[in-house]
Write a structure and sequence with these properties.
Layout: E1 10-13, E2 24-28, E3 39-46, E4 58-59, E5 71-73, E6 79-81, H1 83-91, E7 95-98
Antiparallel strand pairs: 1-2, 1-7, 2-3, 3-5, 3-6, 4-5
């Protein structure tokens, strides 16, 4: 049986196609109770103030223990995974649950 994920859970996911690359923090934004077949995850990336970067949801240092630099939620790289696939990524060492959930976010 798959782990019970909740909105606000944070998962560090490595790029399985680029071994040795940094893991990115992903936020679970859908409730498995409402959508049991898929979890929608949004990545957080360090902002580089690129003109094409969506800054409607900026995360500042201190809002979460993992966030140490100004970061943004990168909607372009959202992922939809089944809870079972996420469990498998964790079992295989490509993902880990971050101990601290993300507090509710608001658009800036």
């Amino acid at each position: 049986m798959a782990r019970q994920y909740a909105v606000g859970d944070c998962v560090l996911i490595a790029d399985v196609l680029r071994p040795g690359s940094k893991s990115h923090l992903y936020l679970v934004i859908t409730s498995p109770k409402d959508h049991p077949e898929h979890l929608m995850l949004l990545p957080c990336v360090v902002t580089r103030r690129r003109t094409a970067q969506d800054t409607s949801c900026t995360l500042n240092p201190g809002c979460h223990p993992f966030i140490r630099q100004a970061s943004v939620v990168d909607y372009r790289h959202a992922r939809a995974l089944t809870p079972e696939i996420l469990d498998r990524l964790i079992e295989q060492g490509f993902a880990t649950i971050h101990e601290a959930p993300m507090p509710p976010l608001s658009l800036s």
